Structure formats: C-alpha cells, structure tokens
Amino acid sequence: MLSHMEVRGALLVIFSCLAPALCAQPDLSKIELGVRQITNNIYMLSGVGGVVGNMIVSTGPDGIVLVDTGYERLADKIESAMRSVSSAPIRFVVNTHFHQDHTGANAAFAAQGTTVIAHENVRKRLAQLPATNALCLPTVTFDKTASLYLNGDEIRLVHYGRGHTDGDRVVHFVRANVVHMGDHFFNFGFPFVDLENGGSVDGYIRTLAAVLDTIHPDAKIVPGHGQPATVHDLRMYHQMLVETVHTVRKAKAAGKKLDAIKRTGLPNKLKQVGGDNENAAFWIETVYRDTNTN
C-alpha cells in the first residue's frame, strides 16, 4: 500500500493540470524503479509513490515486450531495471496512451531498433506536441484490436473507445492471465479523465465494464499507477465510479452548482475508496464538466 504522503504526491503530479502531457515533469532525480515479478516471465516496473506510470516487461525466447516507457529522463534506469531480469533484445514497445509518463522514453528504445506500437491517436497527439522527437512516435498504429504472438503468449491490444483519452489500449497477456489497464485504473484514488484530449467519463466506465466482462476472474491486474490488483479490486473501483458519477449528476440535475457539489462532497464510503478531498473535488469537477458522452 502507498502511504498517504506518497498518494498525495502522486495525485498532485497527475492532477496538477488538465493535460499532463504538456506539464513540466516532476523531479525524477531521486526516483528509483522497483521490479516486481507478476508471473514467471512478466515483471512490473514502477517508481516509488506512483508518479511514474507502471510498465510491464514480458521476457522470453522471442525477446522483450515493454508496455509503456515512463519519462524520457528515466530511460537509463528503465533499461537497467529490465536488464536485471533479461538480457534479450527489446523487440516491441506498446503504449497504453500518449501521456509522457507512459511514452517519454519511446525514443530511447526506438533508437535501439525497437518497434513502437500504439493506437493511431497516440501518434497524432504526440506529433502535435512541441519539439517531439520523431523517434518517440509509434511506427505501427491501428484502431480497434491487434495481437502479438511472442514468448508463448498472445498479447492482445484492445481499444474500447474514448476513456482516459481517445487513444487508450488495454493490454491483455492472454495465456499469462495478466492485464495492463493503463490509466483506466488508478489503484489509489479517483481517476484522471483527460477531457481536453478526447477522454470521456462514460467511456472510462464502459471500458472497465467491458474488461470485467471478458477477463478471467483470477486475472492479475496491473494499473497505470499504484500497486498490482485483483479482479475484485477492479470491480470495486468500477462500482465506486458508477456511484460517484450518479451522485454528481443527480445533484447537477437538481440544479446544484459545481461549487456547492464540491462543498457537499461525496458519501463517506466513496471518499474512503477514492482518495482525499482534493482528489474527490477534482473528480467531481471532471464529471460535472464532461460532455464527451460517446
């Protein structure tokens, strides 16, 4: 479990502005990456406090598949962490979405000959950012679904539509029974839905429901930020979001203004699941302002 201060620190970074990909990066000089084994050949890389997006390393005879790449300035640390579990070449990078805490080190691995794969909107949005290194851009893009067959597994990449952004992928290691949710799961608080970049509250919740309908009940869940989780944890997270959205929209329909809803806050049981008051206020505002319903 993250401590209260670690949770607060992570949330301040993640929710500090409406477009994290354009924000200044946090101080990464003291961040060390932890390596956690999920299955016999799948590992999670994460930074203390949840500031860095969680990465997955799939190892085996076909080489490494890396899901997400963290910040650009962490490329050497990411490489070192991977080499602690495998000396194989990095064959593919898969981006779950375009935010820089998940794509920043793309260029460092592309320079080694690694193929970067993402939703087509990830390439479009990265290309629009100022001074983007061309090597950062995915070289293979697609829309709905695709699969990689490596290391004895099917790595299924699924885009469920608008959610956290308009270019998210859920990555399912079918045989290993591991699912990387990207930022469709923050395992310590309410989520960030990037409305400015195609995100949708309803789409976010639909994605969670679709994943829950398709995965094995014993699947191992890797969130975009926070500790690994179970399907039960993901189900409780989905239920919490459904209830909070209903609460906010009911108040809005009754004519309450945003500030009044924030002052009232959420029921205590939802606060306890979703994080501190600052996180809850940010989520209330997101739900209140969201018009991306498709």
Please write out the topology.
Layout: H1 4-14, E1 33-37, E2 42-47, E3 55-58, E4 64-67, H2 75-83, E5 90-94, H3 100-103, H4 106-110, E6 115-119, H5 120-128, E7 140-142, E8 145-150, E9 153-158, E10 170-173, E11 178-180, E12 186-187, H6 201-214, E13 220-222, E14 225-226, E15 229-230, H7 231-253, H8 258-264, H9 268-274, H10 277-289
Parallel strand pairs: 4-5, 5-6, 6-7, 11-13, 12-14
Antiparallel strand pairs: 1-2, 2-3, 3-4, 8-9, 9-10, 10-11, 13-15
Overview of the structural elements:
The chain has 294 residues and is of the alpha/beta class. It has one domain: Ribonuclease Z/Hydroxyacylglutathione hydrolase-like (Metallo-beta-lactamase, Chain A, 4-Layer Sandwich). 35% of the residues lie in helices and 20% in strands. The strands form 3 sheets. It has a 7-stranded mixed β-sheet. It has a 6-stranded mixed β-sheet with strand order 8-9-10-11-13-15. α6 packs antiparallel against α7. The longest helix has 23 residues. It is globular. The N terminus is likely disordered.
